[in-house]
Amino acid sequence: MHITRILGLHIFLLCPxxxxxxxxxxxxxxxxxxxxxxxxxxxxxxxxxxxxxAVRAVFVDxxxxxxxxxxxxxxxxxxxxxxxxxxxxxPTKVVSLDLTHEEIGGSGNTAxxxxxxxxxxxxxxxxxxxxxxxxxTYLNVMRRLPNGEWKISHHMWDDxxxxx
Length: 164
Hints:
By secondary structure, the protein is of the alpha+beta class. The protein has a single domain (27-158), classed as Roll (Nuclear Transport Factor 2, Chain: A). It is 34% helix and 40% strand. Strands 1, 2, 3, 4, 5, 6 and 7 form a seven-stranded mixed β-sheet that branches. Strand 5 (110-125) and strand 6 form a beta hairpin. It is globular and about 55 Å long. It starts with a helix and ends in a 6-residue tail after the last strand.
């Protein structure tokens, strides 16, 4: 019974790759990798510019955010907005955002990127400015749209848990 479950899981996980191979879709190429890096640069620049619309623009129509520290998933732009751009939130300005791309891979119309991030922002609350920063890791699942453009479909990140 245990071997059957393991075999079934492996077949389930391999089906998308076999399907892509059968359609003549191979690994992503150097042009795809460059486009994916450009999406990440647009994401970085959008945060630094404080441009919420530009941040949203790098995501597919129904993005999935998987926030740090076990926070519940956020699905769709409405939940992305309420998480990152809530109405009435204290003014916040991202002042630095560095991303590395440790690995980019994929097949067909799906790719993944993982790496590290370091971010700093200024939070203004009750007339006082506080600079906050952290470093962590991220994983993005990317989707190639019919027009050839790549966008982020799933964004997951983590950073060190607060020390007690």
